[in-house]
Amino acid sequence: MKKFAFVLFALFLALGANAQAKITLAQNKPEIDAALKAYAAAWGKANNVQVTIKTQGGDQGDINATLKSDYAAGELADIFPVDGPARYAEWANVIADLSAEKWVAQTSVAYKSPEGKIVGFPVAVEGWGMAYNADILKAAGVDPLKLNNFAAYKDAFAKIDAQKAKLGLTSVVSMAAGSGMGWVVAHHNLNSLLSNGLKRGDLSVANKAAAGVLDAKRVAEYADWVELLFKYADKAILTTGGYDEQVGAFAAGKAAFLHQGNWVDGNLASAKVTFKAAFAPHGSTVAVTDGIFVNPPAWYVVNKDSKNAAIAKKFLNDMVFTEAGNDYMVNKAGMIPAFSNVKLHPAGQLSKSVQAWAAAGKTYDWNQYIIPEDFRNNTLAPIYNQFALGQIDKAKFISLFTAAFATLKK
Fold this sequence. Notes:
Shape: globular
CATH architecture of the largest domain: 3-Layer(aba) Sandwich
Number of strands: 13
Number of helices: 18
CATH superfamily of the largest domain: Periplasmic binding protein-like II
Strand content: 5-15%
CATH class of the largest domain: Alpha Beta
Helix content: 40-55%
Structural class: alpha/beta
Distance between the termini: 73 Å
Strand order of the largest sheet: 3-12-5-4
Oligomer: single chain
């Protein structure tokens, strides 16, 4: 009987040793979903770990709401994204300290807690300005190097619009402000108001806005910019188009400009575009600005209460320190790596443009995430949508916009 018990115990130990661990990574970038799942599957096989990737972002809905639901059910992912101070504050109590991780020494853009601890792994470095089709601009007689303030864009848009038929365009700019695309206007475009023309680290405009106070002159200039983009956009894409329609019009050469970031490089590659593309600054101010918006799009954090937190940390470290991890980030996912030891460079034209602006030290912050997400999504986005639909004019847009921010006053 003792021998039988010993055999059972040995069998139990063997099964335990060979048992497959499991981790879940939730992420908010649909454009890297396929590449991340392929990498996770290969990494999991090599490390005897079942890795589940859950993707929700873009026009697929709010990943944070899903994370909250999972947390309430005791099923919060082992790794999940935060995109800035407001989101970090919501999850601070369940986020692990990653200060001792090996990758920390390889990046200058890790997320730091208010206490100074390293808590977030930068997913990548991304940027956006106004993406442009250089071939179209050349044919239209527009110099992209001079697109650096509102007046320059106003003249350029009018000049290109007058040549739409000859250039084969359906619109000057591909812009979206419809349902499900509020992140384009109330996240990315909003950052023009909060950051354009300001030195990195200058939170003066953003912090005042978060406290409910807006500078009337800056808002008036910003409203002119929004109106200009909406005026020269394809109205169908502007009001009802999704991500694929917006990016597709630019990729097909039907729009001279695109209001998106370098994450669309994969879409452009899939469309096999032959034109040259790059970024110019946003024209949201009367004053000349000379930079684009560059930052990590999000940071992966580790659930400190996960029983597999150590495995989750290894998964992140291996992205940085293995050939397969580097290949995934840059070659497969097309991302700009946030780590100095990664020597690969993405092939996408817009990613190269972001790197060029960054190398020249001409970048502005991403400060939109200082503003509460629910406010951006549920209060601001509908105001942009009304403006896009023509239900309100610019004066009313300014009025509603300013009144909305006033509700943030403590």
